[in-house]
Amino acid sequence: MHKQEERFTKIYVFDLNPGNDDITKEFIMGKLSRIMKNISLYQYFVIVSHSSLKVLKKIINDAKINLGYIVSDCGARIYNISTKKIIYEKHIERNDILGISHCLMMSDFLQLISIANNEFIYSFDPMNEYIFSKMHYINCNIISAYNKFKEILEKNSVYSFLCFQKNTLEFNQKFNNFSNVSSDWNVNISKLSESCFAISHKDVNKYNAVLKIMESKKISNFQDVYYYGINSIDIDCYNGFKNHLISVSAYYEAKNFSNSIYTVSYDAILNELSISLKNSVKSSNRKKNVFMNPNALINNSNEKTFNLKDLQEQEEK
After folding, report:
1. Which of 187, 191, 232, 294 is the most exposed place for a label (fewest CB within 10 A)?
2. What is the pTM assigned to this prediction?
3. What is the mean pLDDT of each run of 10 residues along the chain (317 residues)?
């Protein structure tokens, strides 16, 4: 093990949705990027996301982070930031890809497909493609001709689909219809919001990917893993890593998991992590974890409980 890593005894996991709005971009490229960079100097650091590796690598490069790991495509790929190598990958089975895409197309879902070194969009609606490419964190290649689109799918490994429905009123029915058909394919389907879901291979998920990193670093105590749902959460990670903290920015997933998930504001998480980082730098024994754990952070912050009834009443107003 590298001398710099001998004192590394904890893993900090940040579950991100790089997203399609300016607020999310500001979150990720602002204070959080600086915190991630500092954590990478003193402890193991992991970004997990349903987004593509291309998007997440850009976040890391912009933040000038040189140590740590990226788990992309809902767990389908693990990327070592320091060696710039993919250490695990599992693509969707080739005999399923065209069937999935065709079914999505027939339901008029916009498809953001993640392949080996890129990602691209397909939709019957050119305007929908254009708007989404402008909103997304990285402008994507837009494929309008279905034959070309089909050829790309056949020639490349596909790690994940992100699927969007512009008409949210129709989303649930179309999503349910697709979920019923999906039993024919070897895939996992994760609902991410009121108008979006992700598809990846059935054998991959974010939780198992973090377990692989734990194993490689010989960290077996789950209390040494700190899971932060910054603006996205995964139910397996939430249940598996009891040292967890969810921000209110992860509203869509949180309300689907439980009527009562304790969360704190995004700024509270970053402010407390910043303080903990300063204490860590001053600590003479770097092996002793001085980062504030999630339970302490909840106790020191204003709590908010996701209560579906209250949220529904707010939405109706």
Report:
1. 191
2. 0.85
3. 65 84 61 84 91 90 90 97 96 95 91 91 84 74 84 94 84 90 91 89 96 94 88 87 80 72 74 70 50 51 44 49
